[in-house]
Specification:
The complex is a heterodimer. The N terminus of chain A is likely disordered. Chain A is an all-alpha fold. Chain A is elongated, with a radius of gyration of 28 Å. Chain A is 36% helix and 2% strand. Chain B is 3% helix and 59% strand. Chain B is mostly beta strands. Classes of the chains: A mainly alpha, B mainly beta. At the A-B interface, helix 1, helix 4, helix 12, strand 2 and helix 14 of A face helix 2, strand 3, strand 4, strand 5 and strand 6 of B.
Chain lengths: 333, 828
């Protein structure tokens, strides 16, 4: 056997698909651009107490550029979302910050006077997502619209909510980054989850550091109905099978713990110093931990001819199909 | 690298560097505000260049962990088009990003395109070269004194060189309307050349017989997943969704023996396997080392041919209904209900080999199976949050999950035996024949059956069943003691019932006579003479035929007539979740779960566990963020015959300091202490001097010890980003992991039996340091053009014994590689 890494070069690269994507994007852009100069729609009539985004900009111009190209600047979408959420038909700053007329009028009347400005902020405040507010308070405005999405539907009882992590802890809602994240994954998650960063930097690890897999591929940061905010695979199975579908089965002979206990009985999911992300370095130590004929365990003990001191040191030498087999109940083939 | 390639690289580098440093100084850094094009704000960038790599040490391990090779690369690209105020006609926003093109192991492209109320489309393409070349996995660890003495297994026997391609496409129509439609498709393809191992001389219910070899595995599996569904909002803050998913997975994996490193006299290629000792494959396997390849002893164990085939076809439709409602101001509900069924049709799965196995006197085996496995899964989850008062809320998470996995296999098995006339491997197979093997069946021309030889032929069915009902209910009451302190107390009840069963039913299992014991040789296996009786007394179901063979029909010993409740588990958990915010810039949180169960399905699933997670987020200044975590998971099974314990204790912190826009410093540290132990029983010869007796009376093996595994890992990372002048950006950093793992076996009185069951086992990855320093330099020539130079080093070092005394040396695991990347970055 030789180290023949060049074998793989004959595989179909994603590059071809990307070229198709690029060509499609070019055509789309050309078509879209020619029609982009559509006349602006007539300004909607605002409910009482609201002033509209343009008046907010008179003072808060620092948010203008990034906000204008963010998803939240899409007035049509915002109005539709507000309607679905049963909120007043307002698009723009006041959708999240609340009605701003009293605030704007008071600030305008203060005319730059510092004392009056402070008084105006106190008497006519808007909701501004202060650092001292709880995650529940800060997330309430976001959830008015976003809780009706499948992603965020469990946030109200998520582990993040339980520990005072609000939407704005991860999202920069005025920005136009992907999913409005304040940092890309996994750096965003590593801020609080140092243990996982350490594990992903071990020699054997899922390619999170490389960007192929993201934290949110396996976990739903907005919460799920199972512990550790794990997602499920399409067939409502363990999330691992989303990529490792060849381990999913059903097999004619299933190694029972893979279905009942889950992958984490033997593997550490993020990273390990041990090959195959195993919990221990020596495969036999792992196998024997179950395959010792305990009185309560269904796992059979190893037979007497499995001499651990000579051959059969590695259980997987003879039993490589440890997840399940379609031919052999002993998982040899 | 050849001189020619080196020269090409130098030329490219000189051109790029020359262009860059000869250009006018930039007026500003390369941050751009984008351009306006056809009404869109457009940002785009591309990073083009190449990577040069030096490698020393274990190339297989470098490719397993890193696998960055040299060559020209499109390191990354990005394009973002946004129409202000959603004024685009075909789309309002478009994001296209990608990285890793040109030969990197990980390539990703992502396209997200949307137009407000009309559609949203998302496509993600991923390509991952998965290489695994860790040669200690499944290594038989041949001793230096084995015969032939040079049979150190240095190549990875479970080598994988897979290409995994993943494509995910999702289209949502009318995403903002009260009725939206979702369509999606995903494809995963995985495969490539690889190696696997097999204990070749297998037969159902027989077990290993000692010829372990490596097989070439042409591995191919793919999965297509189709999704269609809708979301309906019947009234405000309420949504009902339905999704139909159909997953189709197919595997097409073929196995073949190509490990023919020897020959028989006459030139027949021969595989002597990979495990060599003083007795395996035999005492004197080589009769002539002078030939090419060496000529083997025909009386030895060996494999002449091996082929296998496994082509399952699995279809899994799933229906899923989800809903969410916060229609009532004080009550939020969300839930999922799904039904999934699946069927695996594994037709013509087969494994066939010829050769010789001395323990079973077996000359070969054909196994053919046609199987069906089904999977039915029902899942239902319901979450509710009831806000009783402004300060008090009640949450409930109920979950039910039940699956059933019945399967059946129709099998035909043939086992072959040699006559006694010549050396086995030089002979031809001798099917039982009354002419060449007349009564009393002791002739040398008869097939030679040992008492443990499997049946000569069998056909029948196996049926297996696995099922589980899992129910879980979590109730939690949360109270805001102050606006800055929230405390939640909860209780979780878990119920699991696991059903298991297996049976083998033989239509006919034929045992032919022949061998030293003649006619009595047929009385073996399921037809072995009952204890205390003499031949021809046979067990029920066995019939002595007129030609001397014995045929058994019926259920094999130990078969279950139905599935039975294997394990019933009730578990209770106490939960505490709290956070406190003493100041605006400081938040502390704590999560505690204390679990106690009355049973467990496996020996390494804890019956009691305690999990504590504490976190702190502190922002001492606008430019500083410090986070810390303490995480402690403890588990145990307080059973004398098990003594399972485990813990995973870690603490870590991270700090991001950016006192000036031109200076940023990231620092992180984590310590993790992993430990687990369990009583294990095993056979070992010779047994360690102080070995204790297995404490489990029913154990088929007699040696028992307490096995422990302990690994302590320190990880730190540091990243310094400097921008001394606007044109230059410099990043210096390093991440490093230091892991110190030790498995120890103690006898049950606490005497240390040594590090391993097998003293020839190298430390491998148990004690390692893995350091990755890097430097990253960017020179922005203009607002739109920058040169980028990156250097990274990958230094993997193992500590402790790597080639223990007595082991045929298998080489080192270390590698030390430098990567240098030079690129041109264009942005606007």
């Amino acid at each position: 056997m030789s180290h023949t890494n060049t074998w793989i070069r004959s595989g179909r690269p994603a590059g071809r698909a990307v070229l198709h994507l690029l060509a499609g994007v070019f055509l789309l852009g050309a078509a879209a651009g020619a029609a982009a100069q559509t006349a602006p729609a007539a300004a909607p009539v605002l409910p009482a107490g609201y002033v509209g985004t343009s008046r907010c900009r008179d003072c808060h111009s620092n948010h203008s550029h990034s906000f204008d190209i963010s998803a939240h600047a899409d007035d049509q979408a915002m109005l539709a979302a507000a309607k679905k959420a049963g909120q007043p038909p307002v698009a723009g700053c006041e959708t999240c910050h609340g009605p701003g007329k009293a605030h704007a009028d008071a600030m305008e009347n203060a005319a730059g006077d510092e004392t009056e400005t402070l008084a105006a902020l106190k008497t006519s405040p808007i909701y501004a997502f202060h650092a001292g507010d709880s995650a529940e308070q800060k997330s309430k405005f976001c959830l008015e619209c976003h809780s009706t999405g499948t992603e965020q539907m469990s946030f109200a009882h998520s582990e993040h909510m339980d520990h005072n992590v609000a939407c704005v802890n991860c999202h920069a809602v005025h920005g136009n980054t992907e999913n409005a994240l304040s940092k890309p994954q996994p750096q965003l998650c590593y801020g609080c989850h140092q243990q996982q960063e350490a594990q992903f930097n071990l020699p054997f690890a899922h390619p999170v550091k490389q960007g192929v897999v993201q934290c949110a591929d396996c976990h739903n940061p907005h919460g799920t109905l199972v512990p550790t905010q794990l997602r499920s695979a399409a067939a409502q199975d363990q999330v691992c099978y989303t990529c490792h579908q060849d381990k999913q089965g059903p097999f004619i002979y299933q190694h029972e713990p893979t279905a009942t206990e889950g992958c984490t009985d033997c593997h550490t999911p993020h990273g390990s110093a041990n090959p195959d992300l195993l919990k221990v370095a020596n495969v036999n130590q792992l196998c024997l931990s179950c395959h010792t004929a305990a009185s309560f365990s269904a796992a059979p003990g190893t037979p007497s001819f499995h001499n651990q001191a000579a051959q059969f040191q590695a259980c997987t030498l003879c039993h490589p199909q440890v997840h399940g087999s379609n031919l052999d109940p002993a998982f040899t083939r | 690298m050849t001189d020619k390639r080196c020269g090409q690289w130098l030329l490219v580098a000189a051109l790029v560097v020359g262009l860059g440093f000869g250009a006018p100084r930039p007026a500003a850094a390369q941050q751009t505000t984008g351009i306006n094009w056809q009404g869109f704000t457009v940002h785009q960038g591309v990073d083009l260049g190449g990577r040069w790599s030096t490698q020393s040490g274990n190339a297989n391990n470098y490719d397993t962990f890193v696998n960055l090779q040299q060559g020209l690369r499109l390191f990354s690209f990005n394009l973002a088009m946004n129409a202000p105020a959603a004024s685009g006609r075909l789309f309002n926003s478009l994001i296209l990003t990608g990285f890793g093109f040109g030969g990197d192991p990980d390539t990703v492209a992502h396209l997200a395109i949307a137009k407000s109320k009309v559609y949203a489309f998302d496509a993600r393409l991923r390509r991952d070269v998965y290489y695994f070349g860790w040669n200690l996995q499944a290594n038989p660890l041949n001793a230096a004194g084995a015969n032939p003495a040079t049979m150190a297994i240095t190549a990875p026997l479970h080598q994988l060189n897979f290409l995994r391609t993943m494509g995910d496409y999702n289209l949502t129509l009318a995403p903002q309307s009260s009725f939206q439609v979702r369509l999606g498709y995903s494809h995963i393809g995985e495969g490539g050349p690889s190696y696997t191992t097999v204990g070749a001389a297998m037969a159902p219910g027989v077990g290993e017989v000692g010829i372990d070899t490596v097989l070439v595995q042409d591995y191919k599996t793919s999965s297509d997943l189709y999704r269609a569904g809708f979301d309906y909002t019947p009234f405000a803050r309420t949504r009902i969704s339905f999704t139909e998913v159909v997953q189709h997975t197919k595997g097409d994996t073929a196995l073949q023996d190509q490990n023919y490193l020897y020959q028989l006299a006459g030139g027949t290629p021969l595989d002597l396997g990979v495990a060599f000792s003083s007795t395996s494959p035999c005492a004197a396997p080589i009769v002539s080392a002078a030939t090419t390849p060496p000529t083997a002893n025909p009386a030895c164990q060996g494999i002449l041919t091996y082929v296998g085939d496994n082509r399952p076809r699995i279809t899994m439709p799933t229906e899923q209904l989800t809903f969410q409602s916060s229609y009532f101001s004080k009550l939020t509900l969300d839930g999922v209900a799904s039904y999934s069924s699946g069927k695996n049709t594994a037709d013509a799965t087969q494994a066939n080999w010829r050769g010789y196995s001395s323990r079973l006197t077996l000359a070969g085996n054909n196994d053919l199976g046609n199987g069906v496995a089904k999977r039915v899964l029902i899942n239902g989850d319901l979450g509710a949050v009831y806000t009783i008062t402004e300060k008090l809320r009640l949450t409930s998470d109920a979950s039910y999950n039940a699956f059933r996995l019945p399967s059946a296999l129709g099998f035909i098995t043939s086992n072959f035996f040699y006559p006694k006339t010549t050396a086995p491997l030089a002979s031809t197979i001798a099917p039982f024949n009354a002419t060449t093997c007349p009564a009393p069946y002791t002739a040398a021309t008869c097939p030679q059956h040992s008492s443990s030889a499997p049946a000569d032929a069998a056909n029948g069915t196996t049926s297996d069943y696995l099922g589980q009902n899992l129910g879980r209910e979590t109730i939690q009451v949360a109270y805001s003691i102050t606006p800055r302190w929230n405390l939640a107390l909860g209780y979780r009840y878990t119920y699991r019932a696991i059903y298991d069963g297996a049976a083998i039913n033989y239509a006919a299992e034929a045992f032919d006579p022949g061998g030293a014991t003649g006619a009595a040789a047929a009385a073996r296996g399921d037809c072995a003479v009952p204890k205390g009786a003499t031949f021809p007394t046979l067990p029920a179901g066995c019939t002595l035929q007129s030609d001397g063979s014995i045929v058994f029909s019926g259920a094999a010993a130990g078969s279950q007539t139905g599935h039975a409740l294997a394990t019933l588990i009730h578990g209770d958990s106490a939960l505490v979740n709290t956070w406190i915010q003493p100041a605006n810039n400081l938040t502390l949180s704590l999560a505690v779960e204390l679990y106690s169960g009355d049973n467990a399905f496996t020996r390494i699933t804890p019956r009691q566990s305690q999990h504590y997670i504490g976190k702190v987020r502190y922002q001492p200044a606008d430019w500083a963020q410090i986070n810390g975590t303490v995480d402690d998971l403890e588990g145990n099974n307080n059973l004398a015959e098990d003594q399972f314990k485990e813990h995973d204790r870690s603490f870590g912190f991270s700090a991001t300091l950016a006192p000036q826009p031109s200076l940023m410093f990231d620092l992180g540290y984590n310590y993790e202490d992993l430990y687990n132990q369990a009583v294990v029983c095993y056979a070992t010869t010779p047994a360690p001097a102080a070995a204790s007796k297995c404490p489990i009376a029913s154990s088929p093996v007699t040696i028992g010890s307490l096995s422990t595994y302990s690994a302590k890992t320190n990880f730190f990372n540091a990243d310094l980003s400097l921008k001394p002048v606007s044109a230059f950006t410099l990043r210096l950093g390093m991440s490093a992991s230091y892991s110190n793992g030790v498995p120890v076996f103690f006898n049950l009185n606490g005497v240390n039996l040594g590090n391993f069951i097998n003293p020839l086992t190298p430390f491998g990855g148990l004690q390692i340091s893995y350091q990755q320093p890097y430097a990253d330099f960017t020179y922005a020539m203009t607002n739109n053009v920058a040169y980028h130079l990156y250097w990274g080093r990958y230094l993997y070092t193992t500590h402790g014994q790597q080639n223990p005394a007595g082991l045929a040396p298998i080489g080192g695991q270390n590698f030390d590689t430098d990567n240098l990347a030079l690129s041109l970055q264009l942005t606007m």
